[in-house]
Amino acid sequence: MYKIIALDMDGTLLNDEKVITDKTKNALIEARKKGVKVVLASGRPVDGLKRYLNELELVEDNEFVLSYNGCLVQKTKGEEIICEVGLTGKDLHYAYELSRQLGINIHAFSPTRGLITPKVSKYTEVEANINDIDIRVCDFNTIEEDEHIVKIMFIDEPEILDKAIASLPSEIYERYNVVKSTPYFLEIINKESGKGVGLKALADYLDIPSKEIIAVGDAGNDLDMIEFAGLGVAMGNATEKVKEIADYITGKNTEDGVLEVVEKFILND
């Protein structure tokens, strides 16, 4: 029997209106009644997940959430940290210089400052609106080298972002975990982090083997999580790379694909 189902949010649990359908919500509640832990695993900050945690009744003792692509794993109630792996201001300076060379927009997340950017752009506004958080404009050059940074993102129109990705130096992949989460977001996180790393940290904390875990996602930042889980599931709208490594391909996020997984592998098991 599976004991954890880890769910990506955008393009997976959420439909294109950023809503969890009632059918899926009810199925997840039934899964929890069977003793299965439902864990949201997202690139979003915790603040951008709170409304969904509340909606799914997951803000309770011994419930957990993976945010910032697994850089932060914590309890949903009391927010006790299980695992935290981040970056520094020195990493931000490196990425900022690279972004200027490539002519691409950038923003980052700081645990004390929130969503920070040297210049507000369209996709920083998208990030802020999705998560219902504020934007703080600041000069990245003024940030101390040892300041804690959670993650960094290159953000731009898909064609501009893809051109920049093609020009990235190999060094960046050697130094960081670089994953594309949407056509307009490229995420740069600690080399030792990722959704798979975060999910493993949680599994170790709960003493649950990977074979008893389901992970569902659609994009590049879900790959390591899907590979780690005993049952890795790709959404019908997932990238081809995600589908290639998945054990099972479910319906699209607009077709209650998560509901299909819950019914097939948990409720009807």
TrEMBL record:
Top EC class for this record: hydrolase
tRNA processing in keyword set: no
Pfam families named among the record's database cross-references: Hydrolase_3 (PF08282)
Source organism: Clostridium cibarium
Record's signal peptide: none
Keywords: Hydrolase
Protein's gene: yidA
Name listed for the protein in its UniProt record: Sugar-phosphatase
UniProt-listed CDD domains: HAD_Pase (cd07516)
GO molecular function: sugar-phosphatase activity
EC number(s) per entry: 3.1.3.23
Xref: InterPro entries: Cof, HAD-like_sf, HAD-SF_hydro_IIB, HAD_sf
